[in-house]
From TrEMBL:
Localization of this protein: Cell membrane
InterPro entries: MFS_dom, MFS_trans_sf, TM_effector
Main location: membrane
Protein's UniProt name: Antibiotic efflux protein
Family matches, as PANTHER family: INTEGRAL MEMBRANE EFFLUX PROTEIN-RELATED, STAPHYLOFERRIN A TRANSPORTER
One Pfam family named in its UniProt record: MFS_3
Length: 407
């Protein structure tokens, strides 16, 4: 039953494979990019600037990306975005092989910004493509399978592989990434999408965007989920931004150890992706999301109060489990509810609210460490973003108990 979609649906099989390959590249980059940043500087604010640059496009381009997705061939958008990422990884490889002495961290930030821009377009197109190739009643199963595969390749295989590659040469991960994104582009190119249903000629850019905004405003539950996701992601990306320094300085891990730490998180993601559809059906959507929020509070307390690689690995496992449960429930709900002709635009509004705050979270975490370090010391300062994250997640849990309802 679980593999029926992959066996019987060619388009889903191709999209599934492309996502797995693309996320393998993302998993390698998740370790390699911040590790390269730490070779250029140990300044928490500058390292945060690279993470901020990669997430800033979600604030700048998420809304127009929705209009582009509804107007254009979603398959071609994904192919072109993957090819842009091939070029950017090749440029990073060139930067490593011919090191830039002055301003290297800013060159890396520029590459991260362009990479993030391509990611905005690709991810929005990919998420809006799935309901066109999978029956609506199978969306939870399809999303769970896709995200489990992405966790396996992106966080289970990619990070430790990156650690091994970095140990040989910091250049190797970027060459590997370029190859994986090229293969992803080729797989997406082979997908045959059915013609779009209805919609006719779309209005001009601004009226088309307003149509998506108006739909979102008329659905208070979807709007609340988007705002909550924005806060969750800001806290999450803040923790991930300082995690590379936390792993090096608090936990004493090497690049291989850091990769293994992220892999432990992937185990939770794989389990969450496979179990989330059943958990959501058993508990109901609201209760499942409340469980996810409880897990987020627990995770941040574990990272904020302890300094153990084992506890950190368990925390990342739990965080990925909760994140997968949240995503499977909310994305499937959205994909079923939003009309196909509006899906790209409404999805982009949702992601603008849900992902747009990530640059603030990344820069805020780096700034918090920098401000607290002179008073509390480096170790305590690196714990601080996680303690703040626990407080914010607890506030979201209280809000959800009071306001989150499904029709």
């Amino acid at each position: 039953m679980a593999g029926a979609l992959i066996r019987e649906n060619r388009n889903y099989r191709l999209l599934f494979s492309a996502s797995a390959v693309s996320n393998l590249g993302d998993g390698i980059g998740m370790v390699a990019l911040p590790w390269l940043a730490t070779l250029l500087t140990q300044d928490a604010v500058l390292i945060a600037a690279v993470a901020t640059a990669q997430r800033l496009p979600w604030t700048l381009f998420a809304l127009p990306a929705g209009v582009w997705t509804d107007r254009a061939d979603r398959r071609l958008l994904m192919v072109r975005a993957d090819l842009v990422r091939v070029v950017l990884m090749a440029l990073t490889l060139g930067m490593v092989l011919a090191p830039v002495q002055a301003g290297g961290i800013w060159a890396l930030a520029l590459i991260a910004f362009l990479f993030g821009t391509a990611e905005v377009i690709r991810d929005n197109a990919a998420q809006t493509m799935l309901p066109s190739i999978v029956p609506h009643e199978a969306l939870e199963r399809a999303n769970g399978q896709m995200w489990s595969a992405e966790q396996v390749t992106g966080q289970f295989i990619g990070p430790p592989l990156a650690g091994v590659l970095i140990a040989s040469s910091i250049a190797l991960p970027f060459g590997a990434d370029a190859s994986f994104y090229a293969l992803s582009a080729a797989l997406v190119w082979l997908i045959a999408l059915p013609p779009k249903r209805g919609g006719g000629e779309m209005a001009r850019f601004w009226p088309a965007l307003v149509e998506g905004l108006s739909w979102m405003r008329a659905k208070p539950t979807v709007l609340r989920l988007a705002v909550m996701l924005g806060i969750i992601n800001a806290v999450f990306i803040g923790g991930m931004t300082v995690l590379v320094l936390y792993a090096q300085e608090v936990l004493g891990l090497s690049s291989a150890g850091y990769g293994i730490l992220l892999t432990l998180g992937a185990c939770g993601g794989v389990l969450g992706g496979l179990a989330a559809p059943r958990v959501a059906a058993w508990l109901g959507m609201r209760a499942a999301l409340l469980v996810a929020l409880v897990l987020f509070v627990t995770v941040h307390l574990m990272l904020g109060l302890f300094a153990s690689p084992v506890v950190a690995g368990l925390a990342l496992f739990t965080e990925a489990l909760g994140g997968m449960l949240w995503n499977v429930v909310t994305v499937s709900y959205r994909q079923r509810l939003i009309p196909d002709t509006l899906l790209g635009r409404v999805n982009s509004v949702y992601r603008f609210l849900g992902w747009g705050a990530m640059p603030l979270g990344a820069m805020g975490a780096g700034a918090l460490v920098s401000v607290l370090e002179p008073t509390l010391g480096r170790t305590a300062a690196l714990h601080a973003p996680y303690l703040l994250g626990a407080s914010v997640s607890a506030g979201l849990l209280v809000y959800a108990l009071a306001r989150l309802r499904f029709d």
